[in-house]
Amino acid sequence: MLTRRTVVLGVLAGLGAPAMGATSGGTGPRWDKGPALPLHVQEIYPVLHGGRIHVAGGFRALLGQIVGPTDSHHALDPGTGNWEEMTPLPQALHHPQLVSFGGALYCLGGFLSPGPSRIWVMTGETWVYDESAESWIDFTALPSPAGECMAGVLSTGLHLCGGRKPGTGNASRWDEHIDTDMHILCPAGSDQWLRAAPMPVPRNSGAAAVIGDRLHVVGGRTVARINLADHHVYEPAEDRWRKAAPMPLAQAGLAAAAVSGSLYAFGGEAIGDDKRVFAQCWRYDPATDSWSALPDMPNPRHGLGAVALDDRIYVIGGALSVGGKDTSDLVEILHT
Fold first, then answer.
1. Is the dihedral of CA 25, 286, 206, 152 positive or negative?
2. Can you tell me whether residue 94 is helix, strand or coil?
3. With a cut of 70, which residues of the chain have pLDDT below it?
4. Is the pTM of this model over 0.90?
5. Which residues, in sequence order, are CB contacts of 224 under 8 Å at separation 6+?
6. Do the Cβ atoms of 33 and 332 come closer than 8 Å?
């Protein structure tokens, strides 16, 4: 059970982004440089909460090469462009899901790395941030360990779906996991996890965004290292998934966000025979069920995060090379 204080969301109206050097001009979508992260980090799921962008956990890097997971927690004030160091997570994690839900900041699942040969130990632990006490409080654990999932908040509650699960009881390596069609939700005001319609295609390393009261899940991969272009939409009123137009490219380790009724997808990587990092930026229009290409990201990245604020999307962190190399502190802003 959880004891927590209610946290009131900050007012978003009027927040402005400092001018940080446009990388493309014209009247259409354009990229600007944003305020660099305080650390080089990848495999993150940042979120807008209380008017600030929170980043916590992930694989930290020195000289571009990952050295292990981190418990670091920082928040960006978009109005000033300043990052503030916040209370660290209870433990160092990579791939933890951050979600703003019901006025509180949640951290869900992810992976521990207790030793050099045990990098991918999945956890089902969850926490909620008590901002008045500047501390993380235990929340009800997930029904089973989960990592590299997709998440979104709908009228029915906080939804968590897909990702990977241990293939054995003590799985600690990436190749000891299996893909899952898991889909669970926590209703508002509850501390219980309920089952919902399973995902049509088990996958990990996809991205999700909410448009209206529908959860869009795009891209991802299987543990067999096969990238997916699949796009599915969850309809909470009917507790069912439906197919939508697939992405133009099969991308995994990508990020997504929604602005003004459209979905935007960024970057990712392929780790099979065709190893590469993607710079592509795509826009999906639900009205026409179609994708269009936007200007590429200035720097291709995977393991990055995307956070929408008004008509801007902050594309944060990630690595410029496949795997653990060239991890960055980059923040780039797409003006949609």
1. positive
2. strand
3. 1-26
4. yes
5. none
6. yes
